[in-house]
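Reopening this one. Same input as before:
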Amino acid sequence: MAEDAPIAAAEGTQPAPPEGSADASPPAADAKTAEALLPSLSIWPPSQRTRDAVVRRLVQTLAAPSVLSKRYGAVPEPEAERAAAAVEAEAFAAASESAAAASPASVEEGIEVLQAYSKEVSRRILELAKSRAAPAAAPAEVSVKEEQEDSSATAAPSAESAASEE
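Same output, byte for byte:
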C-alpha cells in the first residue's frame, strides 16, 4: 500500500481507503455531500449585472457600426440608451411572466426561460430598428414620387395625347 501512495500523489488522486476501514463511505453519500458543497446554480432570473451588460450591448448594436445599424441606420447614443433599456425591461417582464406561470424549478427550465428572454430581446430590438428605418425611408419615397410626378408633368406630351387632341 505504501508503494501506491507515490503513484497516487503523482496522478493527483488519493489512494482508495481499504475496504474495511471507517473512511469508506457509500458513493451516494459522497454525491450528496458534493452537491451540498457546490454553490447552487440559478439560470433564471439573470443578475442585474447581466441585465446591465445586455443593455450596454444593445446600445452598442444600435449606436455603433453593426449589421443592424448599417442596414437600418444608427441611432444617436442617448436615444439608443433609452430604447435599449426599454427593450430589455419589456423582454425581461415578458420572460418573467412566462417563468412565473411555469415556475422554473430545474436548470433546464431556467435555460428555456433565458432563451425566451434572449429571443424576445432580439425580436424587440429588430422591431425598433425597422420602425426607425420606416419613417426615414418614407420621406425619401415621397420625394422620389414627387420627382417622378414633376418630371412627367413637365415632359413633352406623348404621341397618344397629341393624337387625342387632334
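So the earlier flakiness isn't reproducible anymore. For the record, Residues 153-166 have pLDDT under 50 and may be disordered.
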